[in-house]
Design a protein that fits this description.
single chain; 115 residues; alpha+beta; 6 helices; binds zinc ion
């Protein structure tokens, strides 16, 4: 199914986690749900504890790729916010060409159906 993997980079750690990885057909709508408390339990706890988070990467991909990233237990290597330019060396080729710039926010991410 056509969709997007997204990484939320947390301002500070929640337990040992610094990132949330999700998948959605419309990632901006999904991120808005996280922010208003109707998303995943993980981001609800972030909201409750006042831990902010920013989308650092949105790439076209399927749920298999989302799972692959989650299973690395090393999400930061996919996170441009953490890795800066080095992320280019660590992403798989199919993610590389959809790479988004550093430090984007919901307001300056632009997504279209034919991304
Ligand atoms: Zn990060």
């Amino acid at each position: 199914m056509q969709g997007y993997i997204y990484i939320l980079h947390l301002d500070s750690k929640l337990s040992h986690a610094r990132h949330y990885v999700g998948w959605a057909k419309n990632p901006l709508a999904r991120i808005a749900h996280h922010k208003n408390g109707s998303g995943a339990r993980f981001t609800q706890v972030c909201n409750e504890q006042g831990i902010g988070y920013t989308p650092s990467l949105i790439v076209a991909g399927d749920r298999t790729e989302e799972r692959r990233i989650k299973n690395t237990h090393n999400v930061k290597r996919y996170c441009p916010h953490c890795m800066g330019e080095n992320v280019r060396d660590t992403l798989g080729e199919n993610l590389l060409h959809e790479f988004y710039p550093n430090e984007c926010s919901e307001n300056d991410i632009r997504i279209t159906d034919n991304l």
